[in-house]
Write a structure and sequence with these properties.
By secondary structure, this protein is mainly alpha-helical. It has one domain: Ferritin, core subunit, four-helix bundle (Ferritin), CATH 1.20.1260. The chain is built from 10 helices and no strands.
């Protein structure tokens, strides 16, 4: 999954983790509600990585050059490796990966069906914008996870190289044909709305994840902070649009 290129670096003066965020998995997982939330989180992430692999493999078919096709195939391989890391962890904690992923399959499949790109450039923008929004969301949650789970989540959000690749290709296309920019800007705004709606639906449908976001884990993450979280995600999206040369 794509790591946002402009992800905010942690402040040197940030307070030390407290509560569950300072515990390891063995300690934190003694709380059954927390364990259920983590299983949901890993299941959602795993299915997202599998879907990203499938999407990048499909996008490679639209690539205009052999070099572009090879680059996307390499990125798809990285996404599948992330998928394997997540399913291996689920297996290690005695949770069947398929059962953990199943609750999220329909929502993610619906999102991808509703936002199917019509061409190569729309596919690039979708992967860059959509994956980055998802990464922002998971990074917000990761800050409040136990140390072992946080390390895993952050590792699978590592940059596959797609962000810089998409920016380079989209900016070059707009420079060659400026009219393309308007169409891609509208497309990116649609993706933003669909991605945020999907994230909110997924959380609302899963009690354990909802509890995690509104106060069931570390540091008192309350409803007001949820609103601020989505504001930060929106701000990061605006910066990415600028990087693409598109109006937010």
């Amino acid at each position: 999954m794509e790591t946002p290129d402009n992800a905010t670096e942690a402040s040197d003066e940030a307070p030390a983790p407290t509560g569950i965020a300072a515990q390891d998995w063995a300690t934190a997982s003694a709380d059954p509600q927390y364990r259920a939330a983590v299983v949901d989180l890993l299941g959602a992430l795993a299915y997202g990585e599998l879907a990203a692999f499938e999407r990048l493999a499909e996008d490679a078919k639209l690539a205009p050059t052999l070099d572009d096709k090879a680059a996307l195939a390499k990125m798809a391989s990285a996404e599948f490796h992330h998928f394997e890391q997540l399913t291996d962890r689920l297996t290690a904690i005695d949770e069947p990966p398929t059962a953990a992923m199943e609750p999220f399959a329909k929502a993610l499949d619906d999102f991808h069906r509703q936002t199917a790109p019509s061409d190569w450039l729309e596919g690039l923008v979708k992967a860059y914008v959509g994956d980055s929004i998802a990464s922002d969301f998971y990074r917000e949650i990761a800050a409040r996870l136990d140390t072992d789970t946080r390390s895993l989540v952050l590792s699978v959000l590592d940059d596959t190289g797609h962000g810089n690749f998409a920016v380079e290709k989209v900016r070059a296309a707009i420079e060659a044909e400026p009219r393309v920019g308007g169409r891609l800007a509208l497309w990116a705004r649609r993706l933003m709305g669909e991605a945020l709606s999907q994230a909110q639906r997924v959380v609302a449908d899963r009690d354990a994840l909802s509890t995690m976001l509104v106060g069931g884990v570390a540091d008192g993450f309350d409803l007001a902070e949820v609103g601020r979280m989505f504001s930060r995600i929106t701000e990061a999206h605006t910066k990415r649009m600028a990087a693409l040369g598109l109006a937010a």
